[in-house]
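A favour, since you know our structure tokens better than I do. It will help me judge whether the discrete encoding reads sensibly. The space below this message is yours for that.
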Amino acid sequence: MALMLMKSVRNSPVTSSWVGHTVARCLGTSTHLQAPGQPKSKKTLAKSGVKNIVLVEGVRTPFLMAGTTYNDLMPHDLARASLQGLLTKTGLPKDAVEYLVFGTVIQEVKTSNVAREAALGAGFSDKIPAHTVTMACISSNQAMTTAVGLIAAGQCDTVVAGGVEFMSDVPIRHSRKMRKIMLSLNKAKTFGQRMALLGKMRLSHFAPELPAVAEFSTGETMGHSADRLAAAFGVTRLEQDEFAFRSHNFAKKAQDAGFLSDVLSISVPGKGMVSKDNGIRPSSLDQMAKLKPAFIKPHGTVTAANSSFLTDGASSTLIMSEEKALAMGFKPKAYLRDFVFVSQDPKDQLLLGPTYSTSKILEKTGLTLADIDVLEFHEAFAGQIMANLKAMDSDWFAQTYVGKKSKVGSVPMEKLNTWGGSLSLGHPFGATGCRLVTTTAHRLRKEGGQYGLVAACAAGGQGHAMIVEAYPQ
């Protein structure tokens, strides 16, 4: 597939010059920071006889680079802080919540059901069920859609969905041979049995198994996949650096303007209050160009500057039936209208989830890209984003791989991630989905739009997309 893509898609109109001009135009204008205009008069996606489900509020801890201020905490500490922040911001009585679900990827063994432990720590009743889901980088997307499903099925009216990831302290295991011996030692009944088992130990058994962000099915790290994908679509190093430059500058502008209102101020024991993301670092293209390839050396194009960084953080959303929300006096932020999940080849198409899911959700809802006012796509790597933009703008890719007669279309950059993205804000694997949806709702309100589209890729060659509709102001 990679060779076919290189021959057929790399000449897509998304060129380095185009990226540079788009970045300059977007950074030089304040249209995405203006007060809301007149709402569009598009037809609503509400369906007769189908319960309206709304996002009432979304919050998150500051997203911090791994190994910094959160270093001495545990995942449930961050999840608990996001839950407490959600309760404080909404004034929601704890006993009004009927279910909690959280997403996470690399689980802390001591708190494997982190949703339950965080809920108990935040003071929720022990009578409220909670469970944890994992679906790589779309884990909190899965948590939110699980909440939607519970409400749509009539099981609940009020669900808290969120996600957490803590990369500052990930589980490190003994080798399998060492584990077998240690488990057998635990069962040994005599001194002789224990000595015989100890005699089987070898120095090599003590080597730890470090976790890696790699595909189990292919053994390839996601960074390598991103590098190959960028090459297949002809995405240059300059294009990737320009997109990362754009992300950091947009994030900085949004942070300074106070638009990142979902970020909580939380107290970290011994380190004081934390109230801002610390990975937003506008640089210059010249400085970015000096970095060496991070994965495929020496000719790769993916670097530390155009990749998302390892991040600690948690997010929480309050999702309710519209009827219940209004009865409790809440003013919802947005309707959660529809969603899809997709899967494809994890080797050659690992990070193309946004292309497949966007095509599928637009067809399902009868919308087009022209109907979408706000686009929030997960930025795992700049090369991944740019490859998806080219794939969406390719009839050949649509016909050959997506099974459609024509392309999704050209993504309008002035609508895409204009408050920054995962490259700059950070990417706590299990928590990013809630950030994307909350940001979409906030941007719709700020910009006067009606429809928002969230899309993301995930390990395993999977993806997700959701249509968010602004709640009438």
In short: The mean pLDDT is 92. The longest strand covers residues 311-321. Residues 237-257 form the longest helix (21 residues).
